[in-house]
Amino acid sequence: MEMFKIIFLPDNVAVEAEPGESLLEVANRGNIHINASCGGEGVCGRCVVELREGTVQASPGLYLSDDDYQKGVRLACRAKVDGPATLFIPLESRADASFFKKAAQADEILTVEHPDPMVRQTCVILSPPSRDDNQSDLDRVSTALAELGLYDNDIDLSAMRRMPEVLRESGFKVTVSIFYELALQNPHSSAWGRIVSFDPAGSDDDFFGLAIDVGTTSVWLRLVNLATGEVLPSIGDLNGQISYGEDVISRIVYAGRKDGLKRLQTRVIDTVNRLLETYEQSYPGYRQKTFLIVVAGNTTMAHLLVGLEPKNIRLAPYVPPASTWPSLRASFLGVNVEPHTVMKVFPSVSSYVGGDIVAGVLASGLYKRPELTLFIDVGTNGEIVIGNQDWMTCAACSAGPAFEGGGVKCGMRAAPGAIENFLYEPQLKRHHLGVIGGVSPTGLCGSGLINVVAELFRGGVLDKRGRFVEGASPNVREGADGWEYLLSPAELSGGGHDVVMTEIDVENLIRAKGAMFSGYQTLVEAVGLKMDDLERVVIAGGFGRSLNLENAVTIGLLPGLPLNRFTYIGNSSLTGATLAALSGAMWRTAFEIKQKMTNFELSETPGYMDKYMASQFLPHTDEGLFKLQRGAA
Amino acid sequence: MEMFKIIFLPDNVAVEAEPGESLLEVANRGNIHINASCGGEGVCGRCVVELREGTVQASPGLYLSDDDYQKGVRLACRAKVDGPATLFIPLESRADASFFKKAAQADEILTVEHPDPMVRQTCVILSPPSRDDNQSDLDRVSTALAELGLYDNDIDLSAMRRMPEVLRESGFKVTVSIFYELALQNPHSSAWGRIVSFDPAGSDDDFFGLAIDVGTTSVWLRLVNLATGEVLPSIGDLNGQISYGEDVISRIVYAGRKDGLKRLQTRVIDTVNRLLETYEQSYPGYRQKTFLIVVAGNTTMAHLLVGLEPKNIRLAPYVPPASTWPSLRASFLGVNVEPHTVMKVFPSVSSYVGGDIVAGVLASGLYKRPELTLFIDVGTNGEIVIGNQDWMTCAACSAGPAFEGGGVKCGMRAAPGAIENFLYEPQLKRHHLGVIGGVSPTGLCGSGLINVVAELFRGGVLDKRGRFVEGASPNVREGADGWEYLLSPAELSGGGHDVVMTEIDVENLIRAKGAMFSGYQTLVEAVGLKMDDLERVVIAGGFGRSLNLENAVTIGLLPGLPLNRFTYIGNSSLTGATLAALSGAMWRTAFEIKQKMTNFELSETPGYMDKYMASQFLPHTDEGLFKLQRGAA
User: Fold this and answer.
1) Which domains occur in chain A, in start order?
2) What ipTM is given for this predicted complex?
3) Counting CB atoms within 10 angstroms of each CB, which of A608, B367, B405, B474 has the fewest?
4) pTM score, two decimals?
């Protein structure tokens, strides 16, 4: 079959392609990222590329105007190869990972004083074999460990194969790394040791664990020193699966395609491997000494990572194949670490309340504190936990992608070029923009959308129903999709087009915040409490970091409670995984949290729909809920 | 580099070879077996091939006369490729596996009434998920198992991946196969379950285990039905490693070469896979339902099977890397079974008292009976166990290969063409031969050698020192290697040459039987007993099956005890493995046997050398030890 060369600009990467392949497939094969929220189904219209040379087979349609088509714009998922071609990927179609590098620096650094990890190292000094004592190497080791009170050790084959050499090289003074296996169901009852490695006993006692947060959008890693408890700076990158859809549902659909599951698994493992490689620059050789990986991710991410078909997650009655995971070997899944590296995956509660939330609750301390706490992770899938040391309930609500810039006309992720901050001056009827990375604005990210809506609502430009007030601002105009507010004209924008916020965008945001608010309102009432009983509100997620608290209350996303009751805890999933990597007791606590949580299916819970309808206003039909109380509780 | 075609007759297999490769290497590469007792070191002279066409680079030498060289005879390990060539592999250089098929039919069939295997199947009927009960599939299974009292189940990834499909296909009625993991050191203390497979609960409840005896010479398999306890007929084949040397020392040496360990492992796994394939004809599809493999083999065979460098086994102080083995997955080692098939390898006592002997002691019942028992496994490495239900001692002695036809001028394995039975008529000075397979004689196997020596000694042809008595028989003549007895002239023989037994062969046998006898004599005395205190003598090993008891006493291999104290138990290693496959209790007993056995290094035990010297006669300096007592004890 004749093959054609497809060149992608600005990176100038050439990929050989067959006639009939979609440009998205070709780009994916060449490891070139093009945003495709819907996973290549042709319904999100975000995978725009510009034809610069050659030809592709395509036609205008619902998501592509004739005008844009004439200018050479194509949707990568719909356009098919029929000859050599050169295509330019515009900024808004590209994921920019540089933001993660910046965020990493700002990440808090934890230190744990007395680590008690699931993998421990024991130095054993053996008497060398002699004619009077010629028991096997393994029996010799087992006997010595038993004398230290460490009975019942099983052993890895890879450790066994290195054992004779290491014993003799080290003069029979070895460090034995033992993984304390914990049973699936009841982690307290059956702990036994499993020898995973032998190393010469030496001067360097450091050994490492890795905490990994596998998010739908991004993957974060953090190295921890299991000997000292030192926690090293985290690094992050976009989850390589993002080319196959931006939300978990698109991923689950994609996993059902031929080789889809394998491909998604490979992508996220590739992302992890890239990050591991990056760490190598700062900590050369750390992988040799990494014995444990603790992963937290939502239920779908866990299934895709481990390679379990996730389709039942999205089919009623929403039963995931697994909510606990056996101990795995990371290398077995393709992670570039030694065979001795054990991988533990956080347990989840339900299809939509995953291990990331269990880790988050662990990190928040909610499970051990007396105060009644609301924990919320704001995102496309919003998760809510209410409880304290005695009880916990949880629920997930599908807020839609508005919080992450999805389903929004000029929406984008919180990457450079995204309008994040917004200030409106009602008297002057003008605004000021704060753009991530200090560059020209390209679009509007989720927290930016909240800020714009809140400011325009306070400034009288938007009314209670989320409609523009006629004549309130010269920037309000009628556009292709109805009324819109011009944030940045094309000539001042990074993408070369007007950046606007439409009434439809506002509607989407109202739906999203209403889903979240009515979610926790339902949960609060279901347990017989009132909103004001909440003594602590913990906001988690990458989103939380850039959220303006007052604006979130203004639009009705957060309840009006005394300011000092709110806490941001950032990436609590990564923090929880870090704690579990450092401490076996914390890992066991994660199981207790999972067991203790009562999951509510909101759609099945009486009153949710009424509350949802009442929340479809700025801020709400009941405005009293949203008077921010500036004093202490 | 130029390559040459080397053709091996009679099978007419062509192998491409580089100049300088030895013919043995070329044959091995082509999977063509040529006997090479010494592993290709050029010192056994058994790998003779005949050059029919072309040329190879070789010269006559210690193991190849000028005369034979002129006739085209070459040693495959010494002859090097220097052009295209055609070579004939004569009968005596080929291993004939057909004997194993015959032996299999004669094999005893065990049946165990109430199997209690390490893998068990539990039928679980689950309530299907609903909106009110949407716990994960795995939690649902775990809860149901817990209700049956089966807590603490971990799970295989492969089982997990099939679980959602199997649950739904079967209407949530499934058979769960659980492997009860046992710790390395103390199998009693930490048993937990590990789910290895899910299958739809159905009409067919059969599930299988495999017992495997991995011997230095041959590999035997036996299928057992773990549901019913039925034991199916065993099958055997030559261990594919045999091309790399006939005894464990040659194999250990070979393992030290580049890729040697990997190659030896591959060869024995290939042998197992061939046998598994053979079983498929009788029990189609059995592998799908095989959940457990129990392997017994000597210490070296266990190391080679699992892929552990065995070199320390033969270096003082003879410390094997391992004497216990973790639970393995057979498929991980390359065995063609499902990922759910767990492999357990018998523990061994020392470098030369291996898992085959532990299995043999298990099969013999020695460990649980009050009678003082001598257990001997006669072979190149003779193993001895003395004890009863209260105590056990063991030792290994290097008898040399005479019992298996090695180091004997016309020696061969007990395969078709081997002289096995021999009757001498002193009056007529003539003999009668019994040949395996009823064909023309090609050589002399180990048990045949014992019979020939015993008969000729009783007939006055051999004296006490193992020398031919002058003029005692017309068949005694002076040959190339000194005095010899003509067993079959060339014209009546299968190989086209005279079949003889030399004085050197007799010397080798005397050394071998002396090593065995002085071994157990030393052991008996070391524990303060006399030979006559032995209430039971159990003879194990493939050799035992064809041993003539009276002749064995005549030459001084076995002590003169009442006949009813002797028992043959055949391949006790396979029988022990069979018992352990059927019963987890038996498997634990194997560990008790290992722990209980006191190993003696004979060379370090006072008196052994004196006893050995005294045994270098027919039957012994102390003839009184060998008066066979025909009555009952």
Assistant:
1) 4-93 (3.10.20.30), 119-200 (3.10.20.880), 208-345 (3.30.420.480), 355-401+510-626 (3.30.420), 413-502 (no CATH)
2) 0.83
3) B474
4) 0.83
